[in-house]
UniProtKB/TrEMBL annotation, chain A:
<protein>
    <recommendedName>
        <fullName>Lipoprotein</fullName>
    </recommendedName>
</protein>
UniProtKB/TrEMBL annotation, chain B:
<feature type="signal peptide">
    <location>
        <begin position="1"/>
        <end position="22"/>
    </location>
</feature>
<keyword id="KW-0732">Signal</keyword>
<protein>
    <recommendedName>
        <fullName>DUF3575 domain-containing protein</fullName>
    </recommendedName>
</protein>
Length: 161, 231
């Protein structure tokens, strides 16, 4: 009898999934910078409070940057010793009531023809002054079984000379 | 089907009164207790409690700016069995901040119809009831996401006429205030399935407070109804 109960309990645990309700404020973009330069500062156009940017350690090559909830694009300024680079991330904002979460905010690719798992590549001159930028529009909301499958949100990789 | 003339007829009331007097009045119970439940066949009532907690508790109560009207008719179908119908209207606002909803205003109506059985040996003091429920709600509200870097996002939502169907179980205690006036203390549990609507309603008219529930909404409650008994 105990074995049957244990079996059911084990199966229930194995088949159960967790739900990620997404950010409760501005969604954060994970930015990976691949290049030799480091930035003196990073900021964004339209920012009314730069405290999140002041906490960024410019010696590192990965950052968490906020997306604006008030617009469908956010432009970041990457200030280095010799120049200022820009990167504009375009997206669609989604606000809806998710079962078990209440109202959530999520982000989708700017064009509906792209899915959340597609990488989009943008090159110098269009939305950025970096050589090449890869953007993956992962969802912030959803169910997952393993921690590795957890919704990642938007992930950006900057390739810089 | 009974005609109203037959149902509410004076002759029937006379017979019932005499029967109650001769049959029940001769028992071991006091005459006042045994005769009163069978003296009247029908009553009309109003809910006299649901507006009091919002008035007394103010912002400490989950439903504010509340206005609730419930009218009830009840009539006897068999000895110890009653049919009852309830029509209600609720409006109010929920100001409690829940899952980014800063304010939710609601209004809606509901109908309940069913039957109840005397569970106190036909003495007319305790009833178990079953009823069907049809309800509709319109929710309007504001949701808010804080944006520390670029500014907050605030937007409105509006969901109209979410229709729901369900059932209700109830236990009721009768208090006979006089020959004419009857106070009923009702405990109920209600389950309604919503046919439409994406936003969780928090309060569903006819069901009650139901946070974090979506398509199936379950809640319970207790209230007082004041009935005027008809001849």
């Amino acid at each position: 009898m105990y074995k049957v109960i244990l079996l059911f309990a084990g199966l229930s645990l194995a088949l159960s999934s967790c739900k990620e309700c997404g950010p409760q404020a501005e969604p954060m973009v994970s930015v990976q910078h691949i290049g030799r330069r480091t930035f003196q500062s990073i900021t964004a156009l339209g920012a009314v409070n730069d405290s999140v940017f002041r906490r960024i350690d410019s010696d590192h090559y990965s950052y968490q940057l906020p997306l604006s909830l008030l617009a469908d694009s956010t432009t970041y300024l990457f200030v280095s010793e010799t120049r200022v680079d820009t990167l504009t991330i375009r997206y669609r904002r989604l606000f809806y009531d998710e079962k078990g979460c209440g109202f959530v905010v999520d982000v989708a690719p700017p064009e509906e023809r792209y899915s959340n798992s597609d990488f989009q590549t943008i090159f110098k001159g269009k939305y950025t002054t970096f050589e090449e930028v890869w953007i993956k529009y992962g969802s912030y909301v959803g169910e997952y079984r393993n921690y590795a499958d957890r919704p990642q949100g938007v992930v950006v990789t900057i390739y810089d000379k | 089907m009974y005609s109203s003339k037959r149902f509410f007829g004076i002759a029937r009331l006379l017979v019932l009164s005499l029967a109650a007097h001769f049959c029940l009045g001769q028992g071991t119970l006091p005459d006042t207790l045994s005769a009163k439940p069978f003296r009247r066949d029908a009553s009309i009532g109003l809910d006299v409690f649901k507006n009091i907690p919002p008035l007394l508790l103010g912002k400490r109560y989950y439903l504010q700016e509340a206005f609730i009207v419930e009218a009830i008719t009840r009539h006897r179908t068999h000895r110890g069995h009653y049919a009852q119908f309830l029509v209600g209207y609720t409006q109010g606002a929920i100001l409690e901040r829940l899952n980014h909803i800063a304010r939710q205003e609601l209004h809606g109506w509901y109908l309940k119809g069913g039957t109840e059985w005397d569970i106190t040996g036909q003495r007319g003091y305790g009833y178990f009831g079953v009823a069907g429920v049809v309800a509709s709600v319109t929710n309007r509200g504001t949701y808010h996401f804080p944006g520390r870097t670029f500014g907050d996002y605030v937007a409105d939502y509006d969901e109209r006429n979410n229709l729901g169907f369900g059932a209700e179980l109830s236990l009721t205690r009768n208090f006979y205030l006089s020959d004419r006036w009857l106070l009923r203390w009702v405990f109920r549990g209600t389950l309604v399935f919503r046919m439409a609507g994406d936003v969780q309603p928090y309060y569903y008219p006819g069901v009650g407070y139901a946070p974090n529930q979506y398509n199936s909404i379950l809640s319970g409650g207790s209230t007082l109804q004041l009935h005027y008994r008809l001849r």
